[in-house]
UniProtKB/TrEMBL annotation:
Transmembrane portions of the chain: none
Similarity annotation: Belongs to the multicopper oxidase family.
UniProt KW rRNA-binding keyword: no
Superkingdom in the source lineage: Eukaryota
Name by which UniProt lists this protein: L-ascorbate oxidase
Native species: Gossypium arboreum
SUPFAM superfamilies in the record: Cupredoxins
InterPro entries, A to Z: Cu-oxidase-like_N, Cu-oxidase_2nd, Cu-oxidase_C, Cu-oxidase_fam, Cupredoxin, CuRO_1_AAO-like, CuRO_3_AO-like
């Protein structure tokens, strides 16, 4: 393994000077992915560990850093990591989903070469294949601003990653077998906070000081509400955008979403509950952690504070209140509001409707009636090597068809540098959560009922939040604007993980005929090749 790592890192380092500017720093990570026993809900399970850790180690970086992550797969099945919110500008080969990247075979390694170009904020990584996410393998990603770029709040006294998510006591292999056999999964068994069950995690603070929490919902099925007993939460960042600093008593995070809040330890010195509970469910799942003052006079007392449960309007109104801080800097010194997205004409409207149903007697989920099935070769490699028959452009419609559900490897073509509107229409009675790899988009509107052209009259064209994951409430719609400025093959998926696994996803192919490095990097020299791309050459070493 050490030889593999050394060779990979040397190759990666040499390659990097072709890929990224040598002036930006490099950070090197060596990760060994293994199975291990974990007991988050009091029963033994097989978890996926990274360097023996569950959850995996945090990635700390600064805007424009190059991240060289050597991943050795010590599992007995293929494995990939993906980087939720990292845009991999001009380089979808590194995205770590099956449409872009060949799986790492058991006993082998692969070195990811990422650059967090023009990004700041709070994100996470996760395993993208085989329902591995239900076993762990996830961890936090933080991208700090460069030293001379102003941040719209003072440095906090501490900066914590908080990974929350619903969880099953069953092993991921059992859950996957249920899905493969065409059955739905049962309701989850509990909620984890940083890999621990109720009462397991704790956070230490000093009285009078202010702290940052980078919270991500890395769960499988449910929206979650986060709160701290007797403390207010000030929202400051959502998936790379500095927000208006609104104060909340509790905050909803839908599947796949990340955000940063500040809180001040301004209460009498004792221990307090941190509470995470499921939204829109019956029963309500609840878990707790402990906020521990350094001079605490005693343990937590009383019942954990309650939060919102099934109220959709409460969540919708909170979502609409999350807005971009137009005067704050983002990853660059210019204000975030200097990009006037509301003045740009859209050139295309894509309407996407999710649905549930059965195909060949098995449970499936679809987008515009197409339930995605992976091809035998990553789609991006099929493009690069010009391999016919792997997928069809136009295999998914721009609009709901109203027809019966069917299986296909759905790819939607789009033009590089176009500015488009996407409307997510949710006619089902559960919350949906959608994520687009490679991009941030402006969440310009959300409301109940059916979207129509008249719905545009209510769009926020001034300070809508820019993020990469958005919710769609039951029997409702959400509209986004996105500038397609990142060439590649990009996964647009449900973050409800069983739905993603059973077909609620497709790939948006952002295409240009240009071969300039300004538009897209060449295939990595160390790219793994599989399927119909096996035996071909990437580039001369």
């Amino acid at each position: 393994m050490q030889l593999h790592s050394a060779v990979a890192l040397i190759c990666a380092t040499v390659s990097l000077f072709v890929i990224a500017g040598a002036e930006d720093p490099y950070r090197f990570f060596n990760w060994n992915v293994t199975y291990g026993d974990i007991f988050p809900l009091g029963v033994r399970q097989t978890g996926i560990l990274i360097n023996g850790q569950f959850p995996g180690p945090d990635i700390h970086s600064v805007t424009n850093d190059n991240l060289i992550i050597n991943v050795f797969n010590s599992l007995n099945e293929p494995f990939l990591l993906s980087w939720n919110g990292v845009q991999n500008r001009r380089n979808s080969y590194e995205d770590g989903v099956y449409g872009t990247t060949c799986p790492i075979p058991p006993g082998k390694n692969f070195t990811y070469i990422l650059q967090v170009k023009d990004q700041i904020g709070s994100f996470y990584y996760f395993p993208s294949l085989g329902f591995h996410k239900a076993a762990g393998g996830f961890g936090g990603i933080r991208i700090l601003s460069r030293p001379r770029i102003p941040v719209p709040f003072p440095d906090p006294a501490g900066d914590y990653t908080v990974l929350i998510g619903d969880w099953y006591k069953a092993n991921h292999t059992d859950l996957r077998a249920q899905l493969d056999s065409g059955r739905k999964l049962p309701f989850p068994d509990g909620i984890l906070i940083n890999g621990r069950g109720p009462g397991g995690a704790s956070f230490n603070v000093e009285q009078g000081k202010t702290y940052r929490l980078r919270i991500s919902n890395v769960g499988l099925q449910n929206s979650l509400n986060f709160r701290i007993q007797n403390h207010k939460l000030k929202l400051v960042e959502v998936e790379g955008t500095h927000t208006l600093q609104t104060t909340y008593s509790s905050i909803d995070l839908h599947l796949g979403q990340s955000m940063s809040v500040l809180f001040t330890a301004d209460q009498p010195a004792q221990d307090y509950y941190i509470v995470v509970s499921s939204r829109f469910t019956n029963p309500v799942l609840t878990s707790t952690a402990t906020l521990r003052y350094s001079n605490s006079a005693g343990p937590v007392s009383g019942p954990p504070p309650g939060g919102p449960t099934i109220q959709v309007d409460w969540s919708l109104n909170q979502a609409r209140s999350i807005r971009t801080n137009l005067t704050a800097s983002g990853p660059r010194p210019n204000p975030q509001g200097s990009y006037h997205y509301g003045l740009i004409n859209t050139t295309r409207t894509i309407r996407l409707a999710n649905s549930a149903g059965q195909v060949n007697g098995k449970q499936r989920y679809a987008v515009n009636s197409v339930s995605f099935v992976p091809a035998d070769t990553p789609l991006k490699l099929a493009d690069f090597f010009k391999i016919d028959g792997v997928y069809r452009i136009g295999s998914i419609s721009d609009n709901p068809t109203g027809g019966g559900m069917y299986l296909d490897t759905s790819v939607m073509n789009s033009d590089y540098r176009s500015f488009i509107e996407i409307v997510f229409q949710n006619d089902e009675d559960i919350v949906q959560s959608w994520h687009l790899d490679g991009y941030s988009f402006f969440v310009v509107g959300m409301d109940g009922g059916q979207w129509t052209a008249a719905s545009r009259n209510g769009y926020n064209l001034r300070d809508a939040v820019s993020r990469c994951t958005t919710q769609v409430y039951p029997k409702s719609w959400t509209a986004i604007y996105v500038a397609l400025d990142n060439v590649g093959m990009w996964n647009l998926r449900s973050e409800y993980w069983a739905r993603q696994y059973l077909g609620q996803q497709f790939y948006l192919r952002v295409f240009t005929t240009s071969t300039s490095l300004r538009d897209e990097y060449p295939i990595p020299k160390n790219a793994l090749l599989c399927g119909r791309a096996s035996g071909r050459r990437t580039r001369p070493l």
